[in-house]
Amino acid sequence: MPVHELAQLTWEEVRDLDRASTLVILPVGAIEAHGPHLPLDTDVVIATAMARAGARRLAARRHVVLILPALAYTAASFASAFHGTLSISGITVTAVIVDLARSLSEQGFRLLAIANAHLDPEHLTALSEAVKLGRADRLLPIIFPDLTRRPWGSRLGDEFKSGACHPGQFESSIVLSEQPTFVRDTIRRTLTPNPRSLSEAIKTGKRTFEQAGGPRAYFGDPAAATPEEGSHLVEALGSILEDAVIEAIE
């Protein structure tokens, strides 16, 4: 079955979709610091890759899939001290997601799935709240596989599980695979590993990258990244999205 990009369709083509059976995917990312070697929209690149990989898998199961333009602005307070980071409130993010879900519901779509790899705590809370509010308002189901929770994160490799993955081997590999010209590769190769875990820092009350031990806004091992690993990780993200959607509809 086909995969459509909403932004490339006309309104009449959307009208003619079998909307009652169409699965909608929204990539969600952030504009925030990702070390000295990756672009500010790294999370958007990853979310878009996740959305497209998941869409291909769902289409292979004979589902019609519609991918929305990415939502690039969200809560990113951990990186707020770094130039270029644009952070908005979690309340705003929740409201945007719920309003999108309401509009999709009014047009008769079946489901909204969120493709996301941005792990700021306020952002994750905002997405979870959108799921709850959508359910309370009886909108179409909002599906959000939270990569920080089981079983999803366990499928993304040792660095991701360690919490030292912003923007280390995990994220750098995906951008090398998806958008290699965006990577400042000469810089990436010189970066020494930073094994400090963001997830552990969050548990102990740290609220910024600097407090967590990332003065250049990176954690993990960017120099170890490869495009081949990136391709594998994108497929893993796509399978997570696929499984979360199938669990919700079957």
List keywords for this structure.
44% helix; 5-stranded parallel β-sheet; Rossmann fold; 250 residues; 5 strands; alpha/beta
Structural notes for this entry:
- This protein is of the alpha/beta class and 250 residues long.
- It has a single domain (3-249), classed as Rossmann fold (3-Layer(aba) Sandwich).
- The chain is 44% helix and 8% strand.
- It is built from 10 helices and 5 strands.
- The chain has helices at 11-15, 42-60, 90-106, 121-136, 158-162, 169-178, 185-188, 198-203, 209-212, 227-249; strands at 3-5, 23-28, 65-67, 111-116, 142-143.
- Strands 1-3-2-4-5 form a 5-stranded parallel β-sheet.
- Helix 4 links the parallel strand 4 and strand 5.
- Helix 2 crosses helix 6.
- The radius of gyration is 18 Å and the shape is globular.
Order of helices and strands: EHEHEHEHEHHHHHH
* Beta-strand content bin: 5-15%
Low-pLDDT runs of 5+ residues are none
Largest sheet: 5 strands, parallel
Number of domains: 1
Q: What's the helical proportion of residues?
A: 40-55%
- Supply the number of helical segments: 10
Class, according to the CATH hierarchy?
Alpha Beta
On the 0 to 100 scale, the average pLDDT is: 96
Question: What is the fold named in CATH at topology level?
Answer: Rossmann fold
Number of strands: 5
Strand order of the largest sheet: 1-3-2-4-5
The named CATH superfamily: Creatininase
Radius of gyration: 18 Å
Q: What is the general shape?
A: globular
CATH structural architecture: 3-Layer(aba) Sandwich
**Terminal Cα span:** 18 Å
Structural class: alpha/beta
